Amino acid sequence: MSTYKIAVVVGSLRKESMNRQVAVALTKLLPKEFQAEFVEIGNLPLYNQDFDSATPEPVLKFKQAIAASQGVIFVTPEYNRSIPGVLKNALDQGSRPYGQSAWQGKPAGVLGTSPGAIGSALAQQHLRNVLTFLAMPTLTQPEVFLQFREEMIDAQGNIINEGTKKFLQSWVDAYVAWVKKINS
Questions:
Q1: What residues make up the domain containing 12?
Q2: CA distances from residue 17 to 22, 23, 75, 130, 142 in whole angstroms, order as listed
Q3: Which helix (H) or strand (E) is 4 found in, with range?
Q4: Which of 8, 67, 111, 149 is an S-S bond match for 102, by CB 3.0 to 4.6 Å?
Q5: At a CB cut-off of 8 Å and minimum separation 6, what does 107 contact?
Q6: pLDDT score for 158
Q7: 60 — phi, psi (to 5°)?
Q8: CATH number reported for the structural domain that contains residue 103 in this entry
């Protein structure tokens, strides 16, 4: 049996963010041969092309974590109808310098949550546009536009709403199949 390392990138820096809670809960639904590793983006400096020849250490570590993965799950909030700047910065850092992208070919999964009914739909669309340019084959269906509710996830990071759990499990199952297909 193969083991798959999945990088999980959360587009929010807040420790108790809704999207981080969903990401933690989601990783508990992965099968045993899938190991999730949260790759933090808050310590990355702002991208500056002047540093392409001397990449800062946090960027090198970030790119190594992405490169060592067999897939990437992005869980993002929506800020001003798009992706958070910190997430865009991470995408840019991981793709540079030109020709040395850590993202290329990594099967991606995109989802997010918000208190609103459209659950980060516009941010996800913008993120998918960027991932296409980065040559990341991205799972298209099913989509997850999740309206966050307090009673969805308990303090231990378990999904307690059965409908939500079933819905997210269907996404996880599709993503697992996607990763296996792309990595075969």
A1: 4-183
A2: 9, 10, 11, 23, 23
A3: strand 4-10
A4: 67
A5: 70, 71, 72, 136, 137, 138, 139, 175, 178, 179, 181, 182, 183
A6: 96
A7: -60, -45
A8: 3.40.50.360
